[in-house]
Amino acid sequence: MTGYLARRVGQAVVVVIGVMIVTFILIHLEPGSVARSILGIRATSDRIAIFNATYGLNQPLYRQLISYVEQVAHGNLGTSYYLQQPVSGLFAQRLPRDLLLLGASTVLALLLSLPMGIYQAVRRGGIADNLLGAASFTLYCMPAFWIAVMLVALLAIQTHVFLPEAPSGTSVGSMLAQPRALALPVLTLTLVQVSGFSRYMRSAAIDVLAQDFLRVARAKGLPERLVLSRHVLRNALLPVVTIVGLSLPGLVTGAIVVEEVFNYQGMGLLFFDAATHHDFPVLLGSTLIVGVATVAGSLLADIAYALLDPRIRYASR
Amino acid sequence: MPAGDLGPGRLMLAAFARNWQARIGAGTIIALALFCFAGPLLYRTNQVTVNLNLKDLAPGGSHPLGTDDTGYDVLGRLMLAGQSSLELGFTVAIATTVLGTAYGAVAGLAGGISDAIMMRVIDTLLAIPWLVLLLIMVNIFPPSLWTIIALLTVLSWLGVARLVRGEVISLRAREFVLAARTMGAGTSRILATHMIPNAIGVIIVSATFSVADSILALSTLSFLGLGLPPPHTDWGTMLTSGLDDLFNGYWWLVYPPAAILIVTIVAFSLAGDAIRDSLDARLRR
Asked: How far apart are CA A224 and CA A218, in angstroms?
């Protein structure tokens, strides 16, 4: 296990460095100068020279990359060209809001999809299974923005149950104080995730239901409720742990769309604005954070899998 | 018996014979293609010049699905937009499949350090969410149909490459491949006659999903205002501009493009699922 872990962490570090290099090269492919797009077409050549010197943009690309890596290693993500604020400060403001949005929707999605998947597996082939299956399949095929807009139309415009725009507060506490505004962004991301999770849960539960130990559990007279909660749920949770760990990149994509629809001031919206304004430090920093989170997610999923299932022992080659 | 006894055509036929979902999926895809490409021959509409006298007309009369905010007939527009959506979906799927299969096969056959490096490249690109990469790239390259096709291809070959590499590695150790190698078959011959035909099922399944994924991705880009530039249009663009008028009660600008978009994605996903199921059934036998 230790050898395997060391190897996986090594791979993870390589991937994170790769993410940094790929993003760095990509954004510098941009034709025309950054200074021009930030300062506008009327900027004088003197001002452009000052801008380039300030941000080290007049140096060769590899020098810029090395100094960026040095900077990041010291915990400094640079200053936003567009917002003129330290990137780490912007992230400190935005990240908690995303943890709230992604965390709440993932928890809700699991609470909905676990019982749903098990129910479908137990009633496999029945009407309820087919209906739920068709519903989650259709949901799976819908663009996230469509789900968001339909929820707004249904629950905010026609019935006024919730508000069509995200909470305006800056802190997580003040956002939680406006549940009617918070509901729709969270609900949209929940639905996006339920469709994926419940399909996995169903097939995992079907696999478990075919195992011999379930026959033993039933034969010794265990009530069906306990059979399902103690044996089926626990064993079917294993693959779901992996899926949750690996679902992060998809979730981030969903979050960008949801934040755009609801004007939710999170990392997604920050990133979207940075991409349109050529704000390199913010682009680099957010891609780096997402990359680290994705790699950490898949690493944690592997470790959790090994801890939860004693049968799994990763060979350390 | 090696698993390669069914060619791609026979595999698809088997899937359709056994599975109603496959029949619904394929039937819908054919109907959609006919609607978009043959439809305009039967149902001629003006999709070139703006006519504000015909703006936002409700369905009825000579416009079965009404007109949009520039006076274009919505039914005719759906056909035109569908051409872009379907063309893009198929082109991206084919390009993705070819690129991913080649990369995965090379990595799987090479093994060792080259394989490790090639896979880390994929891990790296997969660690960045596709929309994040796409947003960076769309702002770098000027949007056009071909740029977007290229960008979506660059982003979506990763999954196929991983799948094919896995298949190649597992096939490499199989007896019939070893036998061929013992008889003196070269790497390219083994690849062409044993590896690719055996991995074709996996490849077809992922290509089918790839069509759905790219149409979905294009609609998301259109929603974010980064889709195909005019005069091109696609279902996502139609839907997005219709959404502005949703609360004016112009439902015909919203629900038809949404419905056809979702039906298309469902159809390709159903077909993909069904082919995969028939593949699993074959492996289980």
From this structure: 7
Sign of the CA dihedral running B245, B238, B159, B116: negative
Interface predicted TM-score of the whole assembly (ipTM), two decimals: 0.80
CA separation for the pair A294, A303 (Å, rounded): 14
Tokens matching residue B243? 């959404």
Nearest CA-CA distance, residue B88 and chain A, Å: 17
Q: Torsions phi, psi of B63, nearest 5?
A: -120, 85
Distance from C-alpha of A199 to C-alpha of A50, rounded to nearest angstrom: 56
**Are residues B67 and B56 in contact, defined by beta-carbon separation less than 8 angstroms?**
yes
Other CB atoms within 10 A of residue B131 CB: 27
A136 vs chain B: nearest CA distance in angstroms?
A: 11
CA distance A237 to chain B (A): 23
**Residues of A near B (CB-CB distance < 8 A)?**
11, 14-16, 18-19, 22-23, 26-27, 29-31, 137-138, 140-146, 149, 153, 157, 248-250, 252-253, 256-257, 260, 271-272, 275-276, 278, 283, 286-287, 290-291, 294-295
Contacts of B133 in chain A (CB under 8 A): 26
Between CA A259 and CA A101 the distance in angstroms is 10
Interface test with B, best of A7, A16, A38, A253 (most B CBs within 10 A): A253
Check which CATH number belongs to the domain holding B97 and give it: 1.10.3720.10
Residues of the domain holding B154? 3-51+59-283
Cα three-residue angle B185-B191-B193, rounded to 5 degrees: 75
Domain ranges of chain A: 2-73, 92-308
Q: At what angle do helices A267-277 and A280-308 cross, to 10 degrees?
A: 140
pLDDT in tens, A112-170: 988 888 888 888 888 888 888 888 888 888 888 888 888 888 887 778 777 777 777 77
What is the per-residue DSSP string for B184-214? T--HHHHIIIIIHHHHHHHHHHHHHHHHHHH
Structure-block tokens of residue B280: 């699993």
Q: What is the pLDDT of residue B12?
A: 66
The alpha carbons of chain A give a radius of gyration, in whole angstroms, of 24
Distance of residue A222 Cα from the nearest chain B Cα, in angstroms? 32
Could you tell me how many residues make up chain B? 285
User: What pLDDT, in 10s, does the model give residues B226-281?
Assistant: 888 877 788 888 888 877 777 777 777 788 888 888 888 888 888 888 777 777 65
Contact check, Cβ <8 Å, B224/A295: no
A60-79 pLDDT, tens per residue?
778 888 888 888 888 788 88
Contact list, B155 vs chain A (CB under 8 Å): none
Do B258 and A146 count as a contact with CB atoms less than 8 A apart? yes
Q: Which CATH architecture has domain A92-308?
A: Orthogonal Bundle (1.10)
- For B:174-233, CB contacts with A below 8 A are 212, 216, 219-220, 223-224
| Residue A22, min C-alpha distance to chain B (Å) | 8
Q: Does the beta-carbon distance from A145 to B131 stay under 8 Å? A: no
Please indicate if any CB of chain A lies within 8 Å of the CB of B139: yes
Per the structure, the count of domains in chain B is: 1
C-alpha to C-alpha distances, A228 to A129, A209, A217, B140, B156, nearest whole angstrom: 17, 9, 10, 53, 39
